[in-house]
Write a structure and sequence with these properties.
Aspartate Aminotransferase, domain 2, 16% strand, 385 residues, single chain, alpha/beta, globular, Aspartate Aminotransferase, domain 1, 15 helices, 7-stranded mixed β-sheet
């Protein structure tokens, strides 16, 4: 058998199961109105929750830093790639999240791999919510530790599993905001369990950081959980509109990660100009509170309108508002009909979500207007009738 035969068969299977994916080509900045595949589209699928990805002040900060520092960092943080801007950003993130220290990673995926693999050893056990992001699951599998997945947001199930463990370190890992459902983890109850069992609690707040909490510091801030309660992982490429990620926690934890987290040690640092852009973005998150307020207003407008249309919404009060469809082909067909009407919403299908739970993943942004959300609802109503 030719070595490509198996690949061709798997690709054909993906197509017949309506699971084939292709990238779209954009020709404009991230914003509600975009040029996608040569067409003008109103987009409701970006994670740019605060509308900062195309903010002029952030663009200007990046440009000015590139003039001073160049484009690439040239090396890993522990060689000579750690600039003054990287250091300033780590300090600003620690202060913003009220942690002693923060450590930058090039992506959220790498931050999760680095953190879990540094803390977990083969004789340890990692407990993960069944709906956790793929990067968290991969991190546990690569660590070599025992992986136990508990029922979604079911702390009673988790408690029983924790009580049954008799040796090794215990590590509880959860998304803060679940990326495909939009609901939040019961982090207070998880923190209580972690304290009771002397376990680490890691919260991946990729979709809550910048959006939730009184100052936008995320779900842990909203639930009044501090450094002693949970390790925070946050990404910078969603609500903050730039790129990269960080882990925030105690000085001892961060020093340990600097010495042991392989994705930190062996990866070229992100460009200094990106750190400058994120510093500018962080200031906007802290000062322009109207962005979070407007986003919350849009969420309520959408949910009320969707309920009136009889849409099968999921239990989310965040910017992620999925409409459950079920069948892959049906979700794909609705997405294509929306695109024909100039509205871009991605059909999410397995393996990203469980079988028979294909959905339209609608995401709202502070950059959207009320009129645009009303147009979305009107268009959905026309198609789903």
């Amino acid at each position: 058998m030719n070595k490509y035969t198996r690949l061709r068969q798997l690709l054909v299977e993906r197509q017949t199961q309506h699971l084939y994916r292709r990238p779209r080509i954009t020709e404009s900045p991230q914003q509600p109105s975009m040029q996608v595949n040569g067409k003008s589209m109103l987009t409701f699928c970006s994670n740019d929750y605060l509308g900062l990805a195309n903010h002029p002040a952030i663009i200007r900060a990046l440009q000015q830093a590139a003039d001073q520092y160049g484009v690439g960092s040239g090396a890993a943080h522990l060689v000579n790639g750690h600039s003054r801007l990287h250091q300033q950003l780590e300090e600003a993130l620690a202060e913003f999240t009220q942690r002693e220290r923060a450590l930058l990673f090039s992506t959220g995926y790498m931050a999760n791999l680095g953190l879990t693999n540094a803390l977990a050893e083969r004789h340890d056990t990692v407990y993960q919510d069944r709906l956790n992001h793929a990067s968290l699951l991969d991190a546990a599998l690569l660590s070599g530790a025992k992986l136990i997945r508990y029922a979604h947001n079911n702390t009673e199930h988790l408690s029983k599993r924790l009580a049954a463990q008799t040796s090794g370190q215990k590590i509880i890992v959860t998304d803060g905001v679940f990326s495909m459902d939009g609901d939040t983890a019961p982090v207070k109850a998880l923190a209580t369990l972690a304290h009771a069992h002397d376990a680490w609690l890691i919260v991946d707040d990729a979709h809550g950081f910048g959006v939730l909490g009184p100052t936008g510091a995320g779900l842990l801030e909203a639930e009044h959980l501090g450094q002693a309660d949970a390790i925070l992982m946050g990404t910078l490429g969603k609500a903050l509109g730039t790129a990269g990620a960080f882990v925030a926690g105690s000085t001892e934890l961060i020093e340990f990660l600097i010495q042991t987290a392989r994705p930190y040690i062996y990866t070229t640092a992100q460009p200094p100009a990106m750190a400058a852009a994120t510093l500018a973005s962080l200031k906007i998150v802290q000062t322009e509170t109207w962005r979070r307020e407007h986003l919350q207003d849009l969420i309520q407008i959408f949910r009320k309108g969707a309920a009136q249309l009889g849409l099968d919404l999921m239990a989310s009060q965040t910017a992620i508002q999925p409409i459950l469809v079920g069948e892959n082909a049906k979700a794909l067909a609705i997405s294509q009909q929306l695109e024909q009407r100039g509205v871009l919403i991605t059909a999410i299908r397995p393996p990203t979500v469980p079988t028979n739970t294909a959905r339209l993943r609608i995401t709202l942004s502070a950059a959207h207007t009320q009129q645009q959300v009303e147009f979305l609802l009107e268009t959905l109503g026309q198609i789903l009738k």
